[in-house]
Design goal:
By secondary structure, the protein is mainly alpha-helical. It contains nine helices and no strands.
Length: 184
């Protein structure tokens, strides 16, 4: 029996960490500010002590949520075509605008590291799309930061999420028309 206990705790700890990150991600999609730690613990179905064992403070939790979202993007990017990946990512800037807003308050070095991971996730799909002639030949991975900033700027023009989403949807459509070559 003693040999099975540590493995069980590790699985429980992994499950708790994932639940905390998912709950924090959900909370951050609904608000511009950072939620209280007790609310995130409640939504994750864990006690506050468990939350604080995984994330010592809000900054650690924010870093964990950003890394969690980036891991999801990196996994998705490996199996998704560039057009779909770009459209979904641009739309996620609206739904995750609370998280993006918090991330923009981080020190510039941290922001640069996170942006580098996003750009790196797009590099393979962009290269394949460019090789097939689906996108402008002069589109570079670094240009994506400009596209992200444009959509984020549109998303931040109002506090009404529905209006922001509609404006961002339109801007995504306009941006994609400038990035992709016509089919056929």
């Amino acid at each position: 029996m003693l040999y099975g206990a540590p493995a069980t705790r590790r699985r429980d700890a992994q499950r708790n960490r994932a639940a905390i990150l998912e709950a924090a991600s959900e909370v951050l999609t609904r608000s511009e500010g950072f939620a209280l730690m007790p609310e995130i613990a409640r939504r994750a179905g864990v006690g506050q002590a468990t939350l604080y064992r995984h994330f010592a403070d809000r900054h650690a939790l924010l870093a964990g949520v950003i890394s969690y979202q980036l891991e999801r993007l990196e996994t998705h990017a490996a199996h998704t075509d560039f057009r779909t990946l770009l459209r979904e990512t641009l739309h996620s800037l609206v739904s995750l605008r609370g998280l993006v807003s918090l991330a923009r308050r981080l020190d510039p070095a941290a922001q640069e590291r996170y942006l580098h991971r996003v750009i790196a996730a797009f590099t393979g799909p962009l290269r394949r799309a460019r090789d097939c002639g689906h996108v402008r030949p002069d589109l570079e991975p670094g240009d994506l930061a400009l596209l992200f900033a444009m959509v984020q700027g549109v998303a931040e023009t109002t506090t009404d999420v529905a209006i922001a989403r509609a404006a961002a949807d339109r801007s995504v459509d306009l941006l994609l028309e400038g990035v992709f070559r016509p089919l056929g």
